[in-house]
Amino acid sequence: MKKILAIVMAIAMTLGMVTGCSGSNGSKNALNVCFGPEPDTLDPALNSAVDGATFLVHLFSGLAKWETNSDGSLKLVPDAAKELVEGVKNADGTVTYTYTLKDGLKWSDGKDVTAMDFEYAWNRAASAELAADYGYMFEVVAGYDEVSEVDDNGAPVNPDAKLAVEAVDAKTLVVTLSNEVPYWNELLSFPTYFPVREDVVSNEGWATDPSTYICNGPYKMQSWEHNSKITLVKNKEYVDASTITMETINCFLSDDENNMLTNFKNGSWQFIDDVPTNDISTLKSQNANEFKIVGQLGTYYVCWNINEEILPAGSPYADDENAKAEIRKAIGLLFDRNYIVEQICQGGQVPASSFVSMGLTDADGKTEFYKNTGFSTSFDGYFDVSASSYNSNFTSAVETLKKYYTYDEASGKFTDFPTLTYLYNTNESHKAVGEYLQSAMASVGITMNLENQEWATFLNTRKNGDYSIARNGWVADYNDPICFLDMWTTASGNNDVQFGKGAHANVKGYSLDLTPYGYDVKVDDGTWAETYDVLISSIKSCTDNNNRYAMMHIAEDMLMETGCISPLYYYTDLYMINQNVDGFFTNPLGYKYFMYTKIK
User: Fold this and answer.
1) Reported CATH class of domain 295-571
2) CATH classification code of 5-290+578-599
């Protein structure tokens, strides 16, 4: 498996194990942590958030899991499976894997975990009926196209279709992929691939109540005080329970960084997953042994609703998608990314010039993907983010916008740009970034109001397209650039921009030529579905590594040309962990692992 460049930095900084007090009431058997607010969902098939994933890797056991080597480097190891087997390539190009489950696997209520539970869970997660945000994660499994197909009304076309996943018996699971997939083992550790039991999830509210929350991982849910605390206790039924060192994890729910820091400093909490930006400088100097900044494979960005009207009334360009794309790209050049990372965020973030994050490698497994993107050889990415380029970027943006809006030379401002609303989730850092973006746009006469929502509401507002412009961020799901690109297909539940949806479904302005890569695909002036969706499908079916990566670059080119995604910076992961806590680790996907911790 390819090495993730960011892992070296992440692990080196993370596993300097982290003097303070013990857990709840002084007990060394309980750890008090806060890694986010009330989760939107704790159903493995429906979750699409990093904080939710941290809960799920403690509550469920998939076929594989992440652990660390003695030197702190990350490794994938079998979890519910006895081993991570090699696939057998079939004559038709498909690849079959046969997994044998470990002996003694149990659900938290004592019932046996079976291969049938995995078969059911994967078909459920991929189904058109569930319409899960991450349903497309199963696109690599044979049969997915039939399982996921819907008609014009969104109803399943093939309600009886199944993935090529079969429980041969209670302990044997056979799965066939459409072709070789280099990141297959990583998918097996992803929460969407975790098992659930049919009789449990038949109760729609099962994942909101500890009494019905049946899981198979290292922990089970003891209590859930909504918007306050979720308590996880060691699951004695877990097959590897003897390796789990922390008996209880009290997960406090908050999106208030000041509250988090107060509770950490007074010893109430031993881990917090965020800090106030105004305190970062002090924490670096006074709390260096507990304040951590580690590498993360992710990008913080602004996204536009592609169906939002951004031209003045009566504009001759009202139906010109290319004009709107040029406008959105111009506005992205108004933002000083160096100011954002140095003066606002202050956490070692790097100005971003691409959507695919730094740290992910290209076809050669050595150079970073983002350094080979864009259309210029004078800088990396799609625009120059050097501090010296900002003034010229700003001037260029204004000149572009003059083509579409009335500009008052005396005031240096546009007078007829429609008012926008910037949506963000409640968080002081997100607010500070939003206020800066607001001021940058106001400097040229564009009014952008700010609106904040609590986390779960925000996620669904953005997903439903009920916004004009919004704060967004994406962290890699596995070590491959495709996880930044396949989320933008028409049917993807993570397609917040609404590509191929609503009015954009009928826009014909995209071209695609894959004939140089051996595909009989050449489209001129096609829709998003006829081009981008086809491109992503072709990438996932491609077994030529160089061609596959070349097509992923084409995908990002198409994405960035819309202007709907304006990258601001590449993430770092900021958190605090008490020095008396040993055994904690994190990964560059942002997941936190507490099951092997001890309090000294």
Assistant:
1) alpha beta
2) 3.40.190.10
